[in-house]
Amino acid sequence: MGKLDGRVAVITGGSGGIGRAAAKRFVDEGAKALLVDLDERALRAAVAAIGGNHASSIVADVTSDDDTRKYVDAAVERYGRLDIYLANAGVEGKFLPIRELSLDAFDRVIAVNVRGVFLGLKHAIPAMAKSGGGSIVITSSVAGIHGFPGGAAYVASKHAVIGLMRTAALECAPMKIRVNTVNPAPIETRMMRSIEEQMAPGHAGQAKEQFQSGVPLGRYGHPEEVADVMLFLASDQSRYCTGGVYMVDGGVSAT
Ligand SMILES: NC(=O)c1ccc[n+]([C@@H]2O[C@H](COP(=O)([O-])OP(=O)(O)OC[C@H]3O[C@@H](n4cnc5c(N)ncnc54)[C@H](O)[C@@H]3O)[C@@H](O)[C@H]2O)c1
């Protein structure tokens, strides 16, 4: 028996590092998963790696209201219901001091990381309520509880989704929909490579060492280690958990 037998999950950022690992965990535990992302080829590769019988994909931009409606409808049309919504698509944007950060660069990060989550909640909640409830998991970050010089847009966006999560948790409790955030520290994905390169152009390895020295466990996390906590929150094992901030951070938040 899988922990998610009979459940249907939508995972945004589904072909990225963490989204793909979560989709695999969910499918391995019996769920059907719809992966949402921007690039069709990357999505096809992710679905093939996960196992095409239980996963499928749709190209959609999470900043678009129409696309969001489409991917939620597609999950219900393909699989008959919606039980789990993982709002995980995100961008790091430009890492620059506030005085050098352009308005466009700021707006772009907020559009994907905040508006995208708002739209997902707006469309997924009614579909999940129709299915009798479920679990919403939003990917925040240690940047959702700590400041980071150069990370104004990203830090603001990851704080903002904790506010969205808390509001949604209170609104959705009567519908038996639980809502929580997962807050990773640096994880081995494309996103950290980009941030390292931006912090120390041409010396990403040194930036990585510096980041790692700030992690009590002394290393980056792996996408699967984040996916395990997402699985816990998606499953009935967390049936009394809602409105919570779940750190997966090697101890960073204790420093
Ligand atoms: N990697 C880390 O260290 C880390 C730490 C904390 C939080 N996070 C968060 O985890 C989540 C997943 O990131 P990741 O590390 O897997 O990075 P990633 O870049 O591998 O994955 C992010 C995915 O989101 C997709 N995406 C971006 N904009 C989109 C849009 N407009 N519409 C649809 N999809 C879009 C990208 O195409 C990509 O596949 C993000 O929200 C990120 O902020 C990552």
Walk me through this protein's architecture.
It is a single chain. The protein has 255 residues and is of the alpha/beta class. It folds into two domains: 8-184 and 224-247, 3-Layer(aba) Sandwich (Rossmann fold); 186-220, no CATH class. It has eight helices and seven strands, in the order βαβαβαβαβαβαααβ. Strands 3-2-1-4-5-6-7 form a seven-stranded parallel β-sheet, sandwiched between helices. Helix 1 (17-28) crosses helix 8 (223-234) and helix 3 runs parallel beside helix 4. The longest helix is centred in the middle third of the chain and has 28 residues, at 103-130. It is globular. The model has no long low-confidence stretch (mean pLDDT 97). The structure holds nicotinamide-adenine-dinucleotide. The site of nicotinamide-adenine-dinucleotide has 26 residues, from helix 1 and helix 6.
Defining key terms:
single chain; 255 residues; alpha/beta; Rossmann fold; 2 domains; 7-stranded parallel beta sheet; globular; binds nicotinamide-adenine-dinucleotide
